[in-house]
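ARCHIVE RECORD
Type: protein–small molecule complex
Small molecule: NAP
Source of inputs: curated submission
Record status: active
Notes field left blank by submitter.
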Amino acid sequence: MRVFVTGGTGHSGSYIIGELIAAGHEVTGLARSDTAAAALSAFGAKVRRGDLEDLDGLKEAAADSDGVIHLAHRQDLLFSGGIDAVAAAEHPIMLAYGEALAGTGKPLVAAGSIGSSGSLGRPATEEDPALPTGDEHKGTLHARNIVETAVIDLAERGVRSSVVRIANIAHSTTDRAGFLMQLIALAKEKGFVGYPGDGANLWNAVHVRDAAAVLRLALEKGPAARYWHAVGDEGIPFREIAEAIGSRLGLPVMSIPTDVLMVPGYFGFLANLVTQSYPASNLITRRTLGWEPTQPGLLADLDNGHYFPAG
Ligand SMILES: NC(=O)c1ccc[n+]([C@@H]2O[C@H](COP(=O)([O-])OP(=O)(O)OC[C@H]3O[C@@H](n4cnc5c(N)ncnc54)[C@H](OP(=O)(O)O)[C@@H]3O)[C@@H](O)[C@H]2O)c1
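STRUCTURE (tokenized, with ligand):
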């Protein structure tokens, strides 16, 4: 297939290009700068110069392709407008892809998040839809659910659209700004590793190379209107993650009382997230797409030499 990929220079994106080329596909990546163009060429992709703000350009690129994998996101808007602004910028992009691909049956695979189906008190599955989004969700991660819902809705217009929900913690040797990097930086800054309350809340994780395989399989053979879970570790207690980081850094590990002052005091803007529990199942993804994670799990991958370089 001739695949159009956005976000090919990002953490997940840089693995998907190699994954697609190794499977015999031809990849064109969106680049908004010379640096991005050079990186995409180095990965073996063709380059299409453009920006997420150019909806006509995205439509043209989608129409020229046999399928689209969309991973780019306007993270630059986070600081000015929060998650609402990021979602508001992404929603019209999905509608633009819809215009380009309607009636073609071509695949559109977009990144989503575990957590979009809410706190269910049980592991989230691929059958749990994204929660509807309302004004009351402004400023929360739910605000982005309009994007997942728009992608799924495109199936009714003849697009083989699906959402790959990437685990909350994506890890690899090229992780620059992911959740693990932030936890490690916080621990170094504070001189100890914190976990909220009893730390029994569960976090899911995936190696981005395994996530890339889910994205490819969804593109190649995933039915329309489906959610897939790119999840390797289905639920690790937060305390275990904190203890693993503490043992590598030689720092004490301590509970942070879950009150309104203490959690933000340690975790800052991550405070609303770290107290959540996000167990997630990957069973339907494995069974339907024939996917199996092959890379190290989160705790083993802490010793990949990237997170804690020797010395
Ligand atoms: N745990 C996770 O990491 C996780 C979990 C759930 C969902 N996701 C989602 O998965 C997707 C990929 O995440 P990631 O961590 O791999 O992304 P990332 O490392 O932050 O990379 C962002 C990508 O978007 C591109 N981009 C940003 N603004 C752009 C613009 N205006 N025009 C064109 N390209 C632009 C960047 O290109 P440049 O190289 O030019 O900057 C880069 O390739 C995102 O939608 C994210 O929300 C991630």
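CURATOR ANNOTATION: The CA atoms of residues 168 and 205 lie 6 Å apart.
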